[in-house]
Amino acid sequence: MNRIYRTDAPKKATNLSINSDLLRQAKALGINLSATLENRLEELIRSKKEEQWLNETAEAVEYNNRLVEERGTFADRTRLF
């Protein structure tokens, strides 16, 4: 999968507040919090950008779909079978 961010960008320290029981369990299980957060943030950002793109292009997609319904596709007119 292509990354949506620069993996060579420097790390930046930040402060987070996390439920203490979740933190304790994560540490006990050896979960890498930084990697887990980065992976989940990438998923969320990808999803939000996709949703944004769909909203921004919905009118054009709807218009294109109407044209295909009315006129068919270019391939419909050129294929020989």
Protein described:
This protein has 81 residues and is mostly helical. It has one domain. 65% of the residues lie in helices and 0% in strands. It has three helices and no strands. It is elongated and about 65 Å long.
Features:
mainly alpha, elongated
How far apart are the termini?
Answer: 37 Å
Whole-angstrom Rg: 23 Å
Biggest beta sheet summary:
none
Order of SSEs, N→C? HHH
Question: What's this entry about, in short?
Answer:
By secondary structure, the chain is mainly α. 65% of the residues lie in helices and 0% in strands. The chain has one domain.
Write the layout of secondary structure elements.
Elements: H1 20-28, H2 33-71, H3 74-78
